[in-house]
Amino acid sequence: MMFLSLAAPAPNAEGSGGASFPPFDPSHFASQLFWLVILFGGLYIVLSRFVLPKLGGVIEKRGDTIADALDEAARLDEQAKEAKQKQEQHLAEARAKARETADKARDKVEAEIAEESRKVDEQLSARLDEAETRIRKVRAEALSNVESIATEATQAMLGRFGVKATKADAKAAVDRATKG
Questions:
Q1: For residue 17, is it within any domain?
Q2: pLDDT (tens digit, 9 = 90+) per residue, 26-69?
């Protein structure tokens, strides 16, 4: 049985200096260094010219998509706030009108005052319900857009790395990320 040793080689039967392990043989160092430089240089060129630009483009596109989605969500949230402010202003105007009507009608019969107040309150309630419904709808649309864009971005990124993910899996991952 023959064992490799890093110690000095034993002379062989012919009396020569013996054969050493080729990668450790100093006479092969120059060719090994040459091929090391060629291989790592080729690897560097392939990575820097082809792989990393594509990967950087995907990351930049993902960042742009997320930034656009966040900008859209912020815009829709601002619209919802504006709609709520307008509704509050309309509500304040309607209440002021109701007070004015009540002040003018004090000398009228109590039944007429009660009837008019009931009508104004119904109108205000309907407007308020309508405005709240619009606000909820705008917010829900904004949040669903962000969630669907994030789900699509997750699927696209996983697809780039060769991982197949269903829309339900991607949506579940997005939900976990946004809840946590």
A1: no
A2: 888 888 899 999 999 999 999 999 999 999 999 999 999 999 99
What number of H helices and E strands is found in the chain?
4, 0
**What domain count does the chain have?**
1
In a domain, 151, yes or no: yes
99-118 in b/e burial notation, b at 16+ Cβ within 10 A?
eeeeeeeeeeeeeeeeeeee
Q: Is the separation of the CB atoms in 28 and 119 below 8 Å?
A: no
Taking CB atoms within 8 Å and a gap of at least 24, the contacts of 24-28 are none
Q: Which residues of 46-81 are buried (b: 16+ CB within 10 A; e: fewer)?
A: eeeeeeeeeeeeeeeeeeeeeeebeeebeebeeebe
Would residue 56 count as lying in a domain?
yes
| Nearest-10 crossing angle of helices 110-160, 167-179 | 120
What distance in Å separates the CA atoms of residue 101 and residue 178, rounded to the nearest whole number? Answer: 50
CA gap 133, 130 in Å, rounded: 5
Write down the pTM of the prediction. 0.32
Q: How many CB atoms lie within 10 A of CB 155?
A: 20
Asked whether the predicted pLDDT for residue 75 surpasses 90, the reply is yes
In eight-state DSSP terms, residue 161 is T
Residue 124: domain span = 45-179
Residue 19 domain flag? no
